[in-house]
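Data card: per-record layout.
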Amino acid sequence: MVNCGGSCVESEDEKRDRKLVTEEPLRAMSEVFGGDGGLWVLDLGLKEEDSCVALTERRPDSDDWKGKMVKGLRGFVDMWRAYQGDKRDLQD
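The structure for this 92-residue chain is written out next.
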């Protein structure tokens, strides 16, 4: 699991689009782990404080995963989506 940041992450270059700071590691991870369920993304998209976390390999069973998490985090389990390339079209 990797924290890929979000638009809130500052780039070394002020002219560089902050979304690219997130996209570049996702693209690289997709090349290595992509394919059938190889890369899963949790994109919180909370405006200025957005955040993106990537999980490689197979996504855990939702019910099993929820059973192992504290109550406050269980709602995030169903928000993970398969990464679908450069467009970042996240699908179920």
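Known properties of this structure: Residues 87-92 have pLDDT under 50 and may be disordered. The radius of gyration is 14 Å.

See the next section for split statistics.
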